[in-house]
Amino acid sequence: EKGGYDYFMLKEIAEQPKAVADTLLGRIDGSGSLTLDEVRIPPGVLREIDKVVIIACGTAFHAGLIAKYAIEHWTRLPCEVELASEFRYRDPILDAQTLVIAISQSGETMDTLMALRHAREQGSKVLAICNTNGSTIPRESDAVLYTHAGPEVAVASTKAFLTQLVACYLVALYLGQVRGTKWGDEIRAVIRDLSSISGAVDEVLGTMEPVRELARTLATKKTVLFLGRHVGYPVALEGALKLKELAYMHAEGFAAGELKHGPIALIEEDMPVVVVVPSPRGRSVLHDKIVSNIQEIRARGARTIVIAEEGDEAVVPYADHLVRVPATPTLLQPLVATVPLQVFACELATARGNEVDQPRNLAKSVTVE
Ligand code: M6R
């Protein structure tokens, strides 16, 4: 049932192009309009929403962090993202004008379930983004947008994450469509690129051998740091989480701009630092800033592992290892930039002799608070 792969995780990483395509299937029509008929929250209600709050745990929380950038940019609605385990204990401000999005692969995560119950008690509408048909979280929500990743067996979430991102982009675009915000050429281009993103994920998968080789050489390292900016920041957090849970290594993700506020003190000779570089097109200020960040850490001895778009030549002089990903609009880059980090963590876990599909101390679905 592992389809010829040694681990479910490898199989699930390889299934990502199809999972992404399946999640998009039937949801964007030929003219580039979104048809999310399954979202049973009436358009009239969505037009009245004045805030979006996303609740989730772990990898699903990272998908939520990325969704915030898309929702705020495409709809101009304020969006908060909160760890479900923290949410209801801080007396959050919720009302009938708040749309709460609960993201969960399993649909059974107790922290997320308790947070969504709290939101509904305050009168908010809850939309679940879930991978498991008929599970508790979608059953208790006002509406559900299913991700069509297929069953995910490995404890470390991979294809569920990519499809959660796709579902979040769809919801953000749908909110924009319903509310008539910013429906211009930029959105049309994003919809076009989203429709072909599965091919880009496939392309990344075809170039992963050097990443595997690199991972094997780092098996005795103690710490790996991950840096990103903008949507690359949650990607960095996700890369670090994967490494912790699979390789049992100390790993941390930082917003690259925070380096000089403390974390740069961690850098020592030959410490691997993975940097997720945003596209040099469009938001070039961001790009220039991260190139200086790479220079700064390299000057302090870091071994830089740079994930950058094809054709980005500015990073070449400062990259000890360069991983290329296809060009995408900035907001969609997590769909391609996360894949090398999954492969990296999986290979490091294998090199360290760890159980890839069943990491120690972890369960696939966390049904206790
Ligand atoms: O089933 P859920 O999406 O609600 O699970 C949330 C987290 O427990 C989950 O993403 C966890 O962080 C994964 N093991 C990460 O790979």
Automatic annotation (TrEMBL):
It is found in: Cytoplasm. Residues 41-181, 214-359 form the SIS domain. Its EC number is 2.6.1.16. It comes from the Bacteria. Keywords: Aminotransferase, Cytoplasm, Glutamine amidotransferase, Repeat, Transferase. Homodimer. This is Glutamine--fructose-6-phosphate aminotransferase [isomerizing]. It comes from Streptomyces indiaensis. The lineage of its organism: Bacteria, Bacillati, Actinomycetota, Actinomycetes, Kitasatosporales. The gene is glmS_2. The chain holds residues 247 to 615 of 615 of the full protein.
